[in-house]
Fold this sequence. Notes:
Layout: H1 7-14, E1 18-23, E2 25-38, E3 45-58, H2 59-68, E4 72-80, H3 83-93, E5 98-105, E6 111-118, E7 121-128, H4 136-149, E8 155-159, H5 168-181, E9 185-188, E10 202-203, H6 207-214, H7 221-235, E11 239-243, E12 249-253, E13 259-261, H8 274-287, H9 292-306, H10 317-326, E14 336-337, H11 340-352, E15 357-362, H12 369-379, E16 384-390, H13 392-399, H14 408-416, E17 423-427, H15 433-439, E18 443-447, H16 458-463, E19 467-471, H17 479-488
Parallel strand pairs: 1-4, 1-8, 2-6, 4-5, 8-9, 9-10, 10-11, 14-17, 15-16, 15-18, 16-17, 18-19
Antiparallel strand pairs: 2-3, 6-7, 11-12, 12-13
Amino acid sequence: MQQLPSLSHVLSNMSSTRILCVGDVMLDHFSYGRITRISPEAPVPVFASEKKTTVLGGAGNVVRNLASLGVACDFVGVVGDDGAGAQITHLFKDLPSVTSQCVTEKGRRTTVKTRFVSQGQQVLRVDDEDTFAISQDTSDMLLKEVGARLPHVQAVILSDYSKGLFTPSLLKGLIDLCNAHGVPVIVDPKARDYAVYKGATFITPNASELHQATSLPIGSDAEVEAAIGYVQRTWGITGVLATRGSRGMTLHVAGENSLHLPTRALEVYDVSGAGDTVIATFAASLAAGALPFQAAHMANTAAGIVVAKAGTAVTTQEELAHALHTGEHTLKHEKFVANWQSAHAKVVQWHREGFSIGFTNGCFDILHPGHISLLRQAKSHCDRLVLALNSDASVKRLKGSARPINDETSRAQVLAALEDVDLIVIFDQDTPLEIITYLRPDVLVKGADYTIENVVGAKEVLSWGGEVVLADLEIGHSTTNIIARSDAA
């Protein structure tokens, strides 16, 4: 019997794994705005755009999920000879621990999906793309790139969005290569004929795709099990993880009993990209040593996190660890984030939802009315307030060896109880400049004992169109004064 690893051990192992993702990459554009009237030119709504964002989509979103989980990733795919293709290449370079090889095919348009969102609801999606099959020369180049990377990875993901990349011959070549190297290959399928995935280790169809491939009913657990069994017997696929929307997931591995997992989402905000999160988390867990049923559980939990977020969202290793430990999946009340990457992901999420981000920082050693006033004023200038808290080591360098009075964990716990604070991130530097430039807030708030010219980060925030606010001070309130009065007494 195979030893059962702890989930915490699996999570920690993710940072030492490498996964190769091959697939249909695209750009996801989001335009957020409002519809307040009907056009006088035609009976159509007028969309007033207020904010735009662009992220990697399709297989690119799988890579984003892997990177967010701390997994090193190689990506191989195809882009067109156009601006969108160049932008995709640039966006890959911004992801930590990711190397990418995007083969450019002349005469092909890179897939771009543009979604218009009003008050949290998608009102229109526009697709700009070519979906014809790639050339044989391109296919040969892809196989060569994959073959060079296989000795260095623990798993391979084939992210099929039916955009012309995965020809039957390329799929056969890729799966045969993976099997020859003993590397598990996990496929997110879009083809109706699963014969092209013959020999894959796992596939992750949704319920509709499973029905289309088998022509079998999938309404009940028993019917899904029967459809999965048909897939395994007919095409020699070892395991199937079927995602079933509100009914959760079903996993079946050849020779084992089926596992039915209920949905883990406490609320559903946007299901865009949830399948990418599932296959990324499932593959990352397997590569990190999880048994298939553990990997399915982790993927199900991760899906419950991302569907409560807007857009093609990702989950982090910290969020997943918290959700697995506590059973809380929306993390609405989780404010304390020690990891900068987690803080950045939260800020990006808020920006996608249309919220403005405020930022302030300090030691906050002994909380007093001056602190409360500063935070209240800061929150009045933004939708979401990030508080950067000096670490214990940083406070000692700035205030002397006798400080802080309260350690960083205690200070963070007290501040997290305040309604005006939405996120806390600890920084160890002498100034917050590095964390400011990393998070890129819209509003920077400091006390009026500063001038804009000597506020750290002001120049940078103003350079990207942000605002610097000097908050009024509560005269006579400071931690230094409190300590002095205590010593005098």
